[in-house]
Structures
1.
Amino acid sequence: MGLEDLLNESAIRLRIRLGCALRRSEDGHALILEIGDGRIVRLSDYVSHYDAAIDGIANGAPLTELRDLVVASGGEWNAIAFLDQVRVLCRTGFVEYPLVETGTEYAVIVPQWASFVPSIAPRTPPVEDRLQRFACVRRSGNAWLVESPLCGARLVLADLSALDAPLVRRALAAAGFLQEARVENDSCPDALKLWEFQDLLFHTHQRRGWHRDMLGAHFPFVGEIDPSPAERPSWPGKRIRLPRAPVDSGGESFASVLERRRTARRFDDSRPISVQELGALLDRSARIRSARVVPVATPTGQSALFEITQRPYPSAGACHELEIYPVVARCADLACGVYHYDASHHSLVRIPASDADVSRVVADAKRASGDEANPQVVLAIAARFARVMWKYRSIGYGNILRNTGALYQTLYLAATELGLSACAIGTGDSALFARITGLDPLVEGTVGECIIGRTLQPDARSPERDAP
């Protein structure tokens, strides 16, 4: 469907999104779009015949009415040129489409894809037709949103009762939100069957092109919430100083370490990892090398100071929100228990935990490894979420998972170089971690785990195996 088709849809109106303005430039030569964050988009040369139509877009009007206003002022040729400018304006993503019938605004269609043009189904869908399985309805401020990663727009409703309005149901059907009752759930393409609802929603919201929400380092809470410190406040208790890694563990090349890296699910139970080796591993992979404060600025010009650190693994925006909690089952010279790794002082602080809780963490890790591993140490990786969420919009949690992957690889390579073995696991019990530590899981919670142990020398009975 093209923009011209809206000339036949009187129930669909065009309106500039809240916080934006369509106006003449200061020098009077250009028609510009002024965006709420201070950006200005030049659309075309200024044409006085557009004035009445520009006012109409500000208040919301059908496209046919806007065109007629330009025709009345400047004739058909100016109206054709004006429609071209509206097309450019719509592609900016700052136009929304109120659905209005008999003077009542039932909903607003907000495009999420650059190519989306709204339409209305020719007839009201039967009540048996329901939302397709990737659609969701959620609150946002005082409004309700209907959205789906498979649809090019979201609908904004002031009241949920508007979902029953025939005009709204026709708009939902035209945008692809509804599934016909006679269509079976398993009739979708195989590629779509493979996706879970939450996975597809998460994936599309991490990438540009599928939504119009703010994305990136916008520092949305500057002036409202103070940023979290780069270094986590120390846990109370006695510090156990850890040995540093040797400056040179043998001179092996990086290429050789990379080639030797394997995921090991079996460890040498007769020789558990030592505290010296655990200290060397954490030194190589997670110790804070330096810290500093940098100024940051929002797109709207607000400023703040943000602490950052430098560590062996990369972190999006230098947030370094990850904390390591070694859960020790067997480690020479270190008691069984749960510890926090203080990356600034390169030390451990023991956290009170029962033997039963330690056993449960270890048992969960073994189960996640396919019941092959007898973990000597489980590194529970937790995130201080505010470190990232304070800086990023839309991609905050995605960045945390990316950072976790970077830490995994660093742990793997450091373990290989030190003669140890590692096995990153895909599932963990965040609720158990919250219970053991007493931490609010919305403030700091686990996002990954990695099993560490001494390498079991391969023989004919224990073939080498990597992660699938």
2.
Amino acid sequence: MCEICASRSRDETLLCVVENPADVLAVEQAGGFRGKYFVLMGHLSPIDGIGPDEIGIDQLLARVQRDSVKEVILATNSTVEGEATAHYVSEQLRPMGVDASRIAHGIPFGGELEFVDAGTLAHAMDGRKKI
């Protein structure tokens, strides 16, 4: 367990799932998140022989139950593998009655539409919300 998750000041009911330790540092530098983390050390990639056992999904589910986690934030990368991993984890959490959420993807703050690639713009349009 890292120093962040060992801290008693963190919200134990909120767990952020990331692919690697560098992702923890990125979320911490952004500020605002006061929960704990679970690092998968990778993502699902059946073509490369990487399944749920290789990235610790069983340990994640055990931790969610043991620590009475109420919400899991899936902060995997927005690659095909990252999306598949987030979807798989959310499906595993559903029968446990734990809320699963996905980090938003799309236009970066301060970004200009003319410089955003088509895939990012399409994802942002799909993920729009009412204001």
3.
Amino acid sequence: MSAPLLSGLAPAHLVAAPVLLPLFAGVLLLLAGRLEPLPRRILGLSSSLAQVALALALLVATASGDILVYALGDWPAPFGIVLVADRLAAWMLLVTALVALFALFHASRGDDLEGRHFHVLFQLQLFGLNGAFLTGDLFNLFVFFEILLLASYGLLLHGGGPERTRAGLHFVVINLTGSTLFLFAVGALYGVLGTLNMADLAVKTAAAPAENLGVVRAAGLLLFAVFALKAALLPLYLWLPAAYASASPAVAALFAIMTKVGAYGLLRVYTLIFGAGAGGAAGLIDAWLLPLALATLALGALGALASRQLRHQVAYFVVASIGSLLTAFGLGSASGIAAGLYYLPHTTFAAAAFFLLAEAIARRRGTLADRLDPGPELIGSAGLGALFFVAAILVAGLPPLSGFLGKFMTLRAAVDHPALPWVMGIVLSAGLLSMVALARSGSLLFFRAQGRIEGATAPATLAELAPILALLGLCVTLTLWAGPASEFARATADQLLAPHGYVHAVLGQGG
């Protein structure tokens, strides 16, 4: 085989690697279940580190605008299953791989031994996440959703306990409901359009006859409900605070990317299939997304203000962050989508770091744990307090870090939007409420000391703080490289709003 042919094949085969690697790693970890913890940890961390490298390679390969397509079994689209890597997919893969690497590093300090098959489930979770970001088929998006949800059920229950069991039950029931709606939507679209390839759906939705538009629009709204549930959009967010707050710290950190899967689904489907060129099905959720996102942001900030435990407060900040993210997407413009894509890694890294930090603080408060009540002076309060201060700045969106830049980009994108007063008022008010909530939490945790701690552990070690420092460092890096990151986000937004490139790449000349 000639060198030019090999060079042409390599990028396409690279698309499948982020899906296959965690699957093979999960199988190997299952077979190695009787080995000592150290070999399993090494295998899991090696797989996660390799996924970071693969995501970077795909990011470089797609940065110029190229769209890489891998046809499974060499069956051409739309008859076969395809994996597609564009700027958006590579961006999501990189964020996921980085969060997973540092969450797994934290878990490998001992939390992974609290239950069976932690490392297997962790890799299968990544298999589902990576597959969801890369698949070009709507039914396989459902399949990968189910894989990552099944793995997340096991991870949520890792370590056991009544609180996790109760939260896990709610999590399972509501997500099974979402899966059922997803199947209804997929069946309806296949019944009237005869395809589930997303590029082919874009073509056939635009050409759908008037008698089929009702079914197509109904299916599109069902998909909106499914993605809104996954993203924890109002009023479908009630499952999230208890689930995230009760999970082990490493699992909660990994779950910081879970809501972004729903946001990804909304962005992918409603720019590609139901975008501006979708004929009678165009603009299907334009009237719904922005108001619901703003309401989610407001209620998330209020929930954080009312929280009595630090982990619950961080979980409500995740709800607020999805409101901020979908507010940017709901503006519907290239600048709005770009603002959301810049804000997405920021909020993922910041939330993951905050969950790990909340656990480090709770371990040093004895029986008070993470309750937001006045307590004795924390062991190692100076270092933990400094980390809390940085995390608070990031979460509240204060200058000069990436949270502020993301919200500023969103407000700037809303300048010409009719809903500017609502966007400006709610985003700024939510930021104020977040500052008040975090100032109260910081005061109770670090400045209102009352005596000695009963049952507290030793000061935090560098190994415990390293993943937190790394995740906060990624937010700082996103701030320092705001120019290149925002330019990449804008190029990604432009690519999403011109879906003919995606359709042509998948379907070839016939698209």
